Amino acid sequence: MFERQERMAILLLVGVAIAVIVAHAVLAGLGKQPFARPFTNSSPDGELVVVEGQIDQITLIKNGGHMTLSVNNLSIFLPAQIVQAVSLQKGDRISVYGIVQTYRGKKEIVVSAAEDVRILPVKSP
Length: 125
Prior knowledge:
- The chain is α+β, with helices and mostly antiparallel strands.
- The protein contains two helices and seven strands, in the order αββββαβββ.
- The protein folds into two domains: about 30 residues; about 80 residues, CATH 2.40.50.140.
- The protein is elongated and about 70 Å long.
């Protein structure tokens, strides 16, 4: 049916496919935590960062249903589909994973999934 070289090529392709599937499963299981860096003012656009802090201000954007949060004097942008999936209030302590982006000359964090926003327990004094 297949010659020896063709069988070898098919086996190699199947092996590579299995390796890619396993790697995908492992990386998906790890999540974004191992790959994110804490945000600094020198974080470049496109970098995956994590920010933790208290929500100082929440602004709902009228067109599109998006939301911006102010945390540690930094703007965090939540697209409409994420806004619908999370319930946030001013004063909540949150941890957010997102991509750094410059918008109108200021750095902001753009969140891509609802699971990238976590409400943290309030610190006791």
